[in-house]
Amino acid sequence: MNERELRQLVAKRKKAYDDAVGEKKSVDELRALVAELKEARDLLDLEIEARGLENPPIDPDPESVKRARKDEHDERGLDELEDDEVEARYTKVFLKAIRGKNVTRDDEAIFERVKNIRKFESSVDEEGGLIIPVDMQTKINEFRRQFIALENLVTVEMVMTKSGSRVLEKLADITPFASIEEWDEIGEIENPKFQNKKYAIKDYAGILPIPNTLLQDNDANLMAYVYKWIAKKSIITRNVTILVLLKTLPKKAAITDVDSLKDVYNVELDPELLASSSAVMNQDAFNFLDKLKDKDGKYILQPNPVDATKKLLFGSYPVVTLGNKFLPTVAKKAPIIMGDLKEAAIVFDRGVYEIKATDVGGKSFTRNTTDIRVIDRFDAQLWDDDAAIWGEIDLTAVPAGNE
Predict the structure, then answer these.
(1) For domain 128-403, is the CATH number 3.30.450?
(2) Residue among 127, 98, 92 nearest 370 (CA)
């Protein structure tokens, strides 16, 4: 056996031992597996030592040295590679699978290693799907920054489990620590009001048809086509999910003029939240407020001195405008969400996109495409529901001084 085969043998026997430990095999069985592992390791050491005794070239050229080092690198077993090296190899496996090429056992082993690295578990079917490579995930995140993502306004927590819970003490219910002196006994804080917030990761899926001609294109073009579609689809999906959630906020406000808008920020919201508060609205609401003046004749939406393309409500609160398509006006009432959304809502993000490709299922065969199914996994929950208010602006109202 050559060095490569011996390294694979060592890795195979090490895995057999680890599996046996996990299955709680007897001590005698474990000892036998350890003996087999030591035997394989000894054979590998002897092979390496023997290669070292070979007569080296008198004057090897630099290219030969490079090739030798590369071959030595490639001969390492999968278990000997660092996580980032495995991820780099996985990108090639991913593209091969998307293009419908045969996946080898080595490719499958790389995928299994990546699943362990990412702590990934498919919830779709027995075969599951592929995981987006790290470099494509980075591109998705970069591309998403070009769009309005409500995720940036709420709290996002990465989770490794499909369900769980978190404990919350709402700002309005928080009590201070007690003052103590040296040697004082620290007592329990009086009547803390904790809430148990549960989450359950949900699957959100879509189908992307890929022209077979694009599959024959270079890797960069194929990956760009996929990650741009995923980024746009993911932002829309999460924005809509967050908006549906925020509409359930218990506090509501009817906005008819400047004063009723000020009442929300001056009285209804906790002063501790104002520094991080914003105003999310649709196009109709923005258009209405952009023309609205206070009693001194000053427009209530002021340019943001940091970014002239953006506005500040009352010169203080960042304005985020969404399309009417996703945040519609109903019965001449335009929605506006006011407050600190990072305290109001939380997204529990599984952090992986799952992909599976087919060129025979669905409509892919009849339209000569390869269809990929993309699954995004997350859950959105209200956190401190007193931290934000769902308001509705009466578009038929004509405030004093704005006739």
Answers:
(1) no
(2) 98
